[in-house]
Amino acid sequence: MKTLILSLLSLVTLAWGWDVFTSVAPTGVNTMWAARQEALHLSGLLSVAMMSLVMFLATRPAWLETPLGGMDRIYRTHKWAGITAVSFAAAHWLIEMSDDTLKALVGREGRVNEEKFTGFLEVLRDLGEDMGEWAIYAVLAMLVITLWKKFPYRAWSILHQAMPVLYLMLAFHAAMLVPTDYWAQPVGILLGALLAGGVYGAVKSLRNAIGKSRQATGEIVSVERLPGDVCAVRCHLNQDWRGHRAGQFAFVTFEGKEGAHPFTIASADRGERTIDFQIKALGDYTRGLAGRLQVGQTVRVEGPYGRFELARRKPKAHQIWIAGGIGVTPFLAWLESLQANPQQAPTADFHYCTRNQAADTFAQHLTTLCATLPSVRLHIHDASRGARLTADTLAATDKSEIWFCGPAGLGNALRNGLKSMGVIPRFHQEAFEMR
Ligand SMILES: Cc1cc2nc3c(=O)[nH]c(=O)nc-3n(C[C@H](O)[C@H](O)[C@H](O)COP(=O)(O)OP(=O)(O)OC[C@H]3O[C@@H](n4cnc5c(N)ncnc54)[C@H](O)[C@@H]3O)c2cc1C
Fold first, then answer.
1. Minimum-distance ligand 1 atom for the alpha carbon of 72
2. Confidence class of residue 16 from pLDDT cuts 50, 70 and 90?
3. Does 288 contact ligand 1 (Cβ within 6 A)?
4. Is the pLDDT of residue 435 over 70?
5. Which of 26-40, 77-91, 124-138, 342-356 has the lowest mean pLDDT?
6. Architecture of the domain defined by 215-305
7. Hey, which end of the chain has fewer CB within 10 Å, N or C?
């Protein structure tokens, strides 16, 4: 995630730097005014580059899953690129507003002359300027509600649908206002490519075409209400479903007006297009879901996505698998997929953290699944008996490979605990949060 964002920021800065150092500086321009002008250009370029990345990643490009480590990571990159974009947009706006301060400090003399345009082009540039200003206010407001976790997800996702329109306004602003000489420079070519990627994403989103090629419909074949507010749903999908690998997830729409929610496919690929979901009541929609779903009801499933896959493990690494609560779902799929060939199961320590083993939906099922896999050692940590998982219990070394799915707080505590012990294993973490 960081690598992609930093690489793109560096590339844009280099391209901008190339233009600065190869262009002939206009005479009579005060250094402060010249620096302001370039800072305005650079902040605008960086903001629109990040925003274009955001829009492109919003199309859920499955081909980027391998290099970026899965769709959950693509979403995290989308989020952090968005935050970076808005930060540069705010800087761009502040630099633009610094006009009066600079006039007071160094005077009007030595200002950079603005490019002159006439006719329709001038009208378009004025429109681009206004659009940029409105869009910046809107994206700043969007950032605030994105970071304000208490803002309800549903209301946020409705407002978030305005992003493609805001992006198109910002793209228009950028295309109209960048210096004309950019278009004959590497910076212009790069900007053009980024705008093309972003506009593609925005238009695809506005046409509601994202993920269409990976969608299958089907029906619910069973619904079960399990202890611990868990709803177990089995769906049978039509021919459009291409199958999945254990550990992947899908966007599932049970009710059209609600839209899709991401859930891990908690079963192995049985080759008959029947897949299971285990859904914990974690919010407004999932609460009471078992009472609302009915056998025979139509379901739409988009996917599969994700790279939380056993096949990606390092063959020689000591395997440590950790599930916290409903984070057990990818491991259910792994364990089920290993049942057919128990001898292919790697040697692994599987830690399952539960609040109360006696009332737990999955503990017994995991014990049964692991009983046929002698190389997988199951450790159940029952918090009601004071058994909490800590970093030192893992017996991890730098050569271990950890696969974690569970509450972010537990994941961070384990990572920090290992770090303070001087142990840095390979750590895969499936994010159950996309916002
Ligand atoms: C890759 C992945 C796999 C998941 N697998 C499972 C699983 O196997 N079992 C399970 O019980 N839960 C799983 N979740 C979590 C599940 O998606 C949320 O608990 C559920 O969407 C909450 O919806 P809500 O309206 O009830 O809750 P809300 O209170 O509205 O939302 C709670 C949080 O859930 C997330 N969320 C809500 N709606 C959506 C949406 N439409 N798209 C994306 N995120 C949303 C947001 O982070 C939000 O802050 C998974 C999440 C991800 C990202």
1. 1
2. very high
3. no
4. no
5. 26-40
6. Beta Barrel (2.40)
7. C
- Residue 267 · residue 276 · CB < 8 Å: yes
The backbone region for 30, taken as left when phi is positive above 0, alpha when psi lies in -120 to 50, beta otherwise, is beta
Contact indicator for 384, 410 with CB cutoff of 8 Å: no
**Any atom of ligand 1 within 6 Å of the Cβ of 279:** yes
CATH of segment(s) 2-206: 1.20.120
The domain limits of the chain are 2-206, 215-305, 311-430
Displacement of CA 53 from its chain's centroid (Å): 12
Residue pLDDT, tens place only, 187-210: 999 999 999 999 999 999 999 999
Lay out the sheet containing 230-237: strands in order across: 261-264, 249-253, 298-305, 215-226, 230-237, 274-280
Interatomic CA distance for residues 305 and 430, integer angstroms: 12
Q: Which atom of ligand 1 is nearest to the CA of 284?
A: 26
* Ligand 1 atom with least separation from CA of 71: 1
Ligand 1 centroid to Cα of residue 260, in Å, is: 10
